[in-house]
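Mods, move this if it's the wrong board.
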Amino acid sequence: PASQAANPASWEAVLWHEFCHVVTLSLTRNKMPRWLSEGISVFEERNANPAWGQAMTPRYREMILDEELTPIAELSGAFLTPKDGLHLQFAYYESSLVVEFLVDRFGLESLKRILVDLGKGRAINETIEAHTAPMKKLEKDFEEFAQKRAEELGHGLDWERHETPEFAAATGERGEDSAALDKTMEKYPKNFWLLTQKAKKLLAQKRWEEAKAPAQTLIEHYPEQTGADNAYVLLAAAHRGLNETNLERQALNKLALLDADAVEAYLRLMELTSAARDWPAVITNAERFLAVNPLLPAPHRFLGRASEELGRPKEAITSYETMLRMDPADVTDVHFRLAKLLHAENNPAARRHILQALEEAPRFREAHRLLLGIVQKTGGNPESAHGSAPLSPAPTPPPIKQP
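Not the wrong board. Structure tokens:
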């Protein structure tokens, strides 16, 4: 997780992906092409969790329909010499689509037999043909399979990037022009690019109610949309602007089921569900966030709070102890909550945490009351978990001299 920088991805999905490599590479004794190994791992990601793995995107749709598919017999080259990063990612997706096609058309057992034969040293294309169909027919059928999948994406939307000055101005490629956008949308009312641009522009203008319509049209025709500026994020922003909390939450919940990397949606859902005291939902979204980035204090704070409310002290203690390693902004509150939880379990470490809370906030009255409770419970001479000296009475202040 620490290596992801600006492109966070679910480490749980990555772990599953790599575990699949262990299985397939062990079975084939490392005698399999990269495209098949990666294709199976991405395919298995999607099978394990619909929010994992790569899915069809507008850009992948364009590449498939523009005949940029690599023939199956040449897929290894797509990994060795990709044009750029996008084409390398597309190689992963196409490989997973080939695996899905083979399993769908010839069954999982056929794929397993291919792997067994690869382990015996047989060549990949020869092995595939032996358990499926001649390569020329296979490639033709796969191309039809991929094109059909691409055409099904956002059915009912206009995906054309119309090569006109008006369209370029409307979509912001030559500067954003509101008049051009409205005029062009009259001509292409269901164009994906125009609808997205319209929703974004209305949100920027804080025209919340009007922004709902283009976002809802996108969702109606393209309900599996994820990625930056997806329609669920746009619709949730409109609801938030109108203080329609329940509707905002519904939109973000739908996105959370589709995108395993949507950390901003998870964070907002934690805020909304915490305010609604829906503690099981808080835990669900905290765990989703931690599956992408466990190195931030916010999800641990929400997880600790929800665990407290649900009567799960061990989980709450673990969350708060983890937070302390991250230098949280409100360290006083963390120490105080830990002290309460540990004191309830008769753990002497409670004394150390309440003293650390008071060190940060000496006037914290509730913390003083908890400290008195700890002292009384331990007979007025408590020892800390680390063997520190018992509490000493405060020194008597010197008398105030009168002028």
